[in-house]
Design goal:
Number of strands: 14
Structural class: alpha/beta
Helix content: 25-40%
Radius of gyration: 22 Å
Oligomer: single chain
Order of helices and strands: EHHEHEHEHEEEHEEEHHHHEEHEEHHH
Strand content: 15-25%
Bound molecules: pyridoxal-5'-phosphate
CATH architecture of the largest domain: 3-Layer(aba) Sandwich
Shape: globular
Largest sheet: 7 strands, mixed
Number of helices: 14
CATH class of the largest domain: Alpha Beta
Distance between the termini: 45 Å
Strand order of the largest sheet: 2-10-9-8-5-3-4
């Protein structure tokens, strides 16, 4: 096709942490003629999607919303529909995405108390607890955090954060960016008493980019009545008015909704607990490979290691990255020579990391392809390691820790 990069032979494998591979059944479901979004039977598509999204978020009481947008707009939906200019939020920055949400909050006129944290760490709960305990006048209206910092491969403890908020009896809303965690790793909207969860379609939901997918608690929903941040396209009230009858306030991307229908079916058929367990197993195998290569993760502690993305740390000036260019070289060789996409280091960690995404439609075989291609790219880039050590370690891990859900299915 004119202008399109040919990926033949084989295909370009996506091991950046999003967009992720689209399952064939999802792809096929989207490849349908355009539909009338005001057709009388359109609600038969929309209402069950909104109902079943609750099962993905693990909520009975939350209200999901779908915007034709991306995760970034989801951040704005969360803040603008609940807060007013000058309201104070408490957040932490420990990577590019937690930085961007902080930046967005400031740019829409909120006051931000920032806990600046070393990249590679996650949310430092004690610091949040202290800041909330010191907030005697309850000026902080929302605690705003990134569950899975995709830039550094760091997952934070949201259940622990909620516990700390409750211990100091702080009434702030809990807003969580789950763009690279929801529909992949453990995320429990009701149990963790999350007030707003933000996600996007191109990661755990295994779709093209184009949908911001959110969930609001009753408490967060009620705050739209007092929120004075300016909003129009991103106003949840227009969705509330139309979603109840199975419609949208404007033309929705119907083909993406067709794909979302099937993606949700796949997730629920596997079962959310099995989805979480699969991501953990795959991540453990990838981490076994990284360890066997003699390399380190950007995540500074095992408690923060992400099950959706591993950021591999190549210290500039070290034997494996003497000129600070090796991480980019691995990514470039992987792409041009072996036809796979890895994640690059962003801003503060540019040139220091390359990232392997292991979320979405993946199994051992796909991840083995990624590890094999990374090994070849590292050989070509002159990284010192024993070829085969990583793939061998991952094979050992995955064969001695088989996918239990798959075994049960076979027995039936
Ligand atoms: C954790 C996280 N939050 C937010 C975003 C922004 O989402 P989008 O690019 O869909 O606007 C990303 C994108 O990768 C992300 O990883």
């Amino acid at each position: 096709m004119p202008g399109q990069k040919l990926s033949f032979p084989g295909r370009n494998y996506l091991f950046a942490p999003g967009p992720t591979h689209i399952p064939t059944v999802v792809q096929n479901a989207m490849n349908v003629p355009m539909e009338d979004h005001r057709a009388p039977d359109f609600p038969e598509l929309v209402k069950p999607i909104l109902r079943d999204l609750k099962k993905v978020f693990l909520t009975k009481t939350g209200t999901p919303f779908i915007f034709p947008a991306t995760g970034t707009a989801g951040w704005e939906v969360a803040l603008a529909n609940t807060l007013s200019p000058g309201d104070k939020i408490l957040t932490s920055r420990f990577g590019q995405f937690s930085h961007l949400w902080y930046d967005l909050a400031k740019r829409i006129g909120l006051e931000v108390e920032l806990i600046d944290t070393k990249w590679g760490n996650g949310i430092e709960i004690e610091k949040f607890k202290k800041a909330l305990a010191n907030d005697k006048d309850k000026k902080i209206k929302a605690v705003v955090v990134c569950h899975n910092e995709t830039a550094t491969g760091v997952t934070s403890d949201i259940a622990g954060l909620r516990k700390a908020m409750d211990q100091v009896k702080h009434p702030a809303l809990l807003m969580v960016d789950g763009v690279s965690s929801i529909a992949s790793v453990e995320f429990r909207f009701d149990k963790w008493k999350v007030d707003i969860a933000v996600s996007g379609s191109q990661k755990g939901f295994m779709l093209p980019a184009g949908l911001a997918i959110l969930c609001f608690s009753k408490k967060a929903l009620a705050m739209r009545k007092t929120a004075k941040c300016k909003r129009c396209f991103l106003d949840i009230q227009d969705h509330i008015n139309t979603n109840k009858d199975g419609f949208f306030p404007y033309t929705p991307p119907v083909n993406l909704l067709r794909g979302l229908r099937v993606a949700i079916d796949l997730l629920l058929e596997e079962g959310m607990e099995n989805v979480f367990a699969r991501h953990k197993r795959l991540a453990n195998g990838v981490r076994a490979a990284i360890k066997a290569w003699g390399l380190k993760l950007a995540a500074s502690s095992p408690k923060w290691q992400s099950d959706t993305v591993s950021a591999i740390w190549l210290e500039p000036g070290s034997k494996n990255n003497p000129d600070g260019k090796k991480a980019m070289e691995v990514i470039s060789i992987a792409y041009h020579t072996y036809n796979i996409s890895l994640g690059a280091g962003l801003t503060q960690v540019a040139g220091k990391v390359f990232r392997i995404g292991h979320l979405g439609d993946n199994n051992e075989t796909r991840m083995m392809a990624a590890l094999g291609a990374v090994e070849m790219a590292m050989i070509d880039a002159g990284i010192k390691f024993t070829p085969g050590s990583g793939t061998g370690a991952a094979a050992k891990y995955w064969t001695s820790n088989p996918n239990k859900a798959l075994k049960k299915k076979k027995k039936k």
